[in-house]
Amino acid sequence: AMSETMRSLSDEENQFLNRFLNKKFWYGLYLEKEKFGHLYYDLYLDQKDQKEVVVFETAMTTKASVEGEESIHKENEKYFHDKETGELLSCSVESSESINNKKTGHIAVKNDSAWLVTDLGGSKREVPVLIENYGLKEMFSEDTWVLSAPKIGDKQKGYLFTCSDMKYEEGTDEVKAIGSSLILGSKVKSYDIIFTSEGLEMLAKVLEDGRLWSMHMGPMFVQMEPENIAKNHSLVALDISKPIKIKNPIDNHKNLNFLKLEISSETLVNMPESFQQKVIKSGEHTFTVSLGPKTAFRQKAQKSDYAKYTAASFEYPTSHPELSNLARKVVGEAKTDDEKIWNILMFVSNALIDDYWSNNENVLEIIKNQRGDCTEHAKVFVTLARASGLPAREASGFVYNDEEDNPGFSGHAWAEVIVDGHWVGVDPSWGEREITPIRLKLGKLYDIGLTSENSSIKVVEKKYKFKASDKEIEIGKELNKKKDYEKEIAHWKALANKGDAFAQNSLGLIYGSNERGVSQDHKTEFKWHSLAAKQGFSPAQFNLGIMYTNGEGVQESSTNATFWFSEAAKQGDLAATYFLAEAYEKGEGVPKDRKEAFDLYKVAAGASIFE
Fold first, then answer.
1. What is 53-68 written as a DSSP string?
2. 486: enclosing H helix or E strand
3. What is the DSSP track for 169-187?
4. Which residues of 321-344 are buried (b: 16+ CB within 10 A; e: fewer)?
5. Is 56 within 8 Å of 72 (Cβ atoms)?
6. A single Pfam family, by name (predicted)?
7. Helix 337-351 with 374-387: angle, nearest 10 deg
8. Alpha-helix residue ranges (DSSP H) falling in 514-556
9. Tens digit of pLDDT for each residue in 150-207?
10. How far is CA 340 from CA 62, 135, 294, 353, 458, in A?
């Protein structure tokens, strides 16, 4: 037997276990694009022979035709590992066929240099242990490897043990590509890893946190899916890691004011009109869609919508005391609908740490677990909005993904709320009070007739919000150098009133400084910083965070402060990243999470505030 010294779990293994313990992941199984089964894997703790063990369980269900009859094959495997060292101690496998009720399987227990294997019928045999101390590290080699951030071309050798045939297979992993995708509202790095063993190749896509996303083995394909999709063999899920590509990236998409798209799909038969989304059917499977404020299109709310979309239900249990109390606390002293929406938006954006595959339908559990992707953000927002008397509903479709190597539109979910008699789009996972025109509202996320394989999207026209020219900005800076403050303020105001974020932020700084001939006025400072921040101008977002922290010009709020620090941090503001890390460390306005805090502190390590 090949031997290695007894070891304890590595940092990567501990990180992997902490992240995925007690979480079940589901996969659809495909052969030549036809779905034929599903499987799940699960990691959990258990007691075995008075020892605490980590159990890795896989359960697979497949359908096949045997002599014209459908047979269901089920196979369950369990691997029991020492919790302290990760070493594999025992395993079991059991399989059954529905057509003849035939069951097979065995239990294997490691005893020094041999596996003692007992079949279901009671017969015993021995199989040599070829690798001592084989364990979690070897079993999840590709998954834990990505946590050390390997580079393209990096290789590692390892062994894969399978309980079903009691064999160790030597193989090599190689990183073939590193990319990123927009998965349910979150940008996620991914690694394409080829595993080669005895001439066979498997291509696995592993996400940056160690989660297996998909795997190709010849004509067979395995893909992560929500449980309800994976178990329904008539449903073929779209691969939401693959965007519907467009030829050229949309430059400066965050400042779009208008976007016109031509969408073609063999399976899309209808598209709804919604908030700032005007649709013209220009062919049997072709649609021209105009997005943004310039469309001047507002979907009017029906009388029945008010009762329908404030009603309590199993999905939105607004009458539950815990949720109704939380809604009252979140809304606070807000008086207008706009203030209520902002308070709920900022709370939900902060309350859930992004987890792009949390798959939780229960609102109370989502809030308790403090994790969620775009669908969980939307569900919690809608529930709290309804509990506050605001008619709200979930929306889903696609959002533009600006990844350089993969530009296109990816699956996403957000919310809609009635304001002044019209439905308005709000995105709690992206922190947008009024959605930017880069979203296509369709039907349910997994039943929308639009996939990367059968669709194309072409940009027909785009227009942008007003932005002052470099020359106009320089004029303002020159006036400041000359100390001609009266003209400088008038110059910034003229640009700010047209909507320029830099000018709006400049006015905020002036009114907050008690200089340049203007009395300090924190309320006016807050007004200008707010206008710039809501346009995505990161310096203004950071300034708003400071104002909410200190209670200057606005009521002090750690929730609101953290929201704006988070928005600025997303754009690379290092000082904001540091304050956000502090918030996660202390649990101020966000869940207390030391790992999240540590990761953010690492990012902020270059910030000048440390000097």
1. EEEEEEEEEEEEEETT
2. helix 485-498
3. EEEEEEEEEEEEEEETTEE
4. eebbebbeebbeeeeebeebbbbb
5. no
6. Sel1
7. 140
8. 522-533, 538-550
9. 999 999 998 889 999 999 888 899 999 988 777 766 778 889 999 898 778 999 998 8
10. 49, 52, 26, 22, 37
Q: Convert the pLDDT of each residue in 386-397 to its tens digit.
A: 999 999 999 988
**With contact defined as beta carbons under 8 Å apart, do 142 and 166 qualify?**
no
At which residue do the structure tokens 């019209």 appear? 422
Task: Decide: 291 and 435 in contact? Cβ < 8 Å.
Answer: no
| Type of residue numbered 475 | I
A 10 A CB-CB count for 489 gives 21
DSSP of 349-373: HHHSEE-TT-----HHHHHHHTEE-
Q: How confident is the model over 469-511, as pLDDT tens digits?
A: 999 999 999 999 999 999 999 999 999 999 999 999 999 999 9
Joined tokens for residue 515: 């200089």
Angstrom CA distances, 471 to 464, 468, 484, 528, stand at 18, 8, 18, 22
Q: What phi-psi label fits residue 378: left (phi over 0), alpha (psi between -120 and 50 degrees) or beta? A: alpha
CA distance 569 to 467: 22
Residue closest to 408 by CA, chosen among 184, 241, 243, 186:
243
Angle made by CA atoms 271, 274, 276, in degrees to the nearest 5: 115
Reported pTM: 0.72
CA–CA separation, 472 and 481 (whole Å): 15
Cβ-contact 256, 464 below 8 angstroms: yes
Which parts of 56-185 fold into alpha helices (H)?
136-139, 141-145
CA 7/CA 451 separation, integer angstroms: 46
Q: Which domains does the chain have, with CATH numbers?
A: 11-231 (no CATH), 244-464 (3.10.620.30), 470-610 (1.25.40.10)
Q: Is 559 helix (H, G, I), strand (E, B) or coil?
A: helix
Report the distance separating Cα 474 and Cα 470, nearest Å.
6
3-state percent breakdown (helix, strand, coil) of the chain, nearest 5: 30, 35, 35
| Token duo for residue 23 | 């979480």
- Pairing mode of beta strands 155-162, 24-31: unpaired
Position 1 pLDDT exceeds 60: no
Provide the residue count of the chain: 611
d(CA 582, CA 371): 19
Locus of tokens 């940008």: 187
- Name the residue type at position 524: T
Q: Distance between CA atoms of 512 and 528, rounded to whole angstroms?
A: 10
Q: What is residue 292's DSSP assignment?
A: S
3-state secondary structure of 29: strand
What are the start-end ranges of the E strands in 184-293? 186-197, 200-207, 212-217, 220-224, 244-245, 256-265, 277-283, 286-291
What token pair was written down for 574? 């290092």
Give residue 393's identity as a one-letter amino acid code.
Answer: R
The answer to whether 242 and 181 are in contact (CB under 8 A) is: yes
CA distance 143 to 496: 50
